Amino acid sequence: MKKEVINAKDLTRWYYQKSDKIFSKEKKIIKAADGINFSLNQGEVLGLIGESGCGKSTIGRILVGLEETTRGSLIVNGKEASMLLKENEKEFRRTVQMVFQNPFDTFAPKHTIGKILIRAMEIHNIGFSTEERFEICKKTLEDAGLVPAEDFLNRYPHELSGGQLQRISILRSMLLKPLFMVADEPVSMLDVSVRAEIINMLQSLVKNNDTALVFISHDITITRYISNRIAVMYLGKIVEMGESDEIIQNPKHPYTQVLISNCASIDFEDREEPIRIDGEPPTPINPGPGCYFAPRCFKATKQCFEKYPDHKEVEKGHFASCHLL
What does pTM read for this prediction? Predict the structure, then answer.
């Protein structure tokens, strides 16, 4: 058994919004993330999927310490994340890394790629001199197929393509050998032709460094390819979670069934007709009291509108929240 790296218990992030009614003291609760539970071992990849606005990125930001929780706890490498941040923020930042959707937002535009990578190594005491760090960067880029490496190291971020910059963003994280990383829609802004390279780089990071990874995406096919397990989110909650192939081939929650049936690139010959649902996802402001998916669910019963279902183990390692199970 590999060591547990991340343990999230009841992770919750609510935002409070004043009522738009004059003189009203009522506050609206926006439940961006609502009671998230999961754990990850070394070298394990958890795919987080769902529609835009379901809370995937909020969870990602909580996991890397960019967002505070309303309640719940996050254990990183056996210690409470909030305590690690207070005691040694630099060590926490090296242990936990994040790859963002837009690579152009993650690099200082006035610095060369070489200076950016070397600076990261200086902060975390990797290498003994600027020359040694430059050689480490050069070899890292060459191993990733970015050649000639000196050419890339002397360029500025705006002189590179989105795919090249995203690869360098991942390489910067790989230099630090993190225990845990979040990749938030890392290929959604890139051409299809370079997406496979980015996914392969992430897999290499996981394999070579035994890094645990949360892969956030709305692309079910890519998520299935890279992930050991998949968690399906809807309106701030995980509605289903299990082994990747089990989720794809045997979805239990109606929402998961809708997502899978409408994914054109999964087992095309075996797919049934797409399941159509009406309406847009409801607002995350004061949802409930029943199942959040009930207003759009094609299987909803009276009970679904009255109480939120428990998160049950429907098969070994396969969990879902639905009254019909």
Answer: 0.92
pLDDT in tens, 153-197: 999 999 999 999 999 999 999 899 999 999 999 998 888 888 888
Phi-psi region of 306 (alpha: psi -120 to 50; beta: other; left: phi over 0): alpha
Asked whether 181 and 99 are in contact (CB, 8 A), the reply is yes
Pairwise CA distance, residues 156 & 36, whole Å: 39
Q: Which tokens belong to 56?
A: 């995937």
CA distance 64 to 3: 19
Do residues 310 and 291 make contact, with C-beta atoms less than 8 angstroms apart?
Answer: no
Q: Is 298 exposed, middle or buried (0-12, 13-18, 19+ CB in 10 A)?
A: exposed
Strand, coil or helix: what is 5?
A: strand
d(CA 48, CA 239): 11
Q: Which residue has the tokens 């990602």?
A: 60
Angle between helices 113-123 and 162-175 (to 10 degrees): 20
Which neighbouring-strand residues pair with 18?
A: 27
Burial readout 110-131 (b: 16 or more C-beta within 10 A, e: otherwise): eebbbebbbebbeeeebbeeee
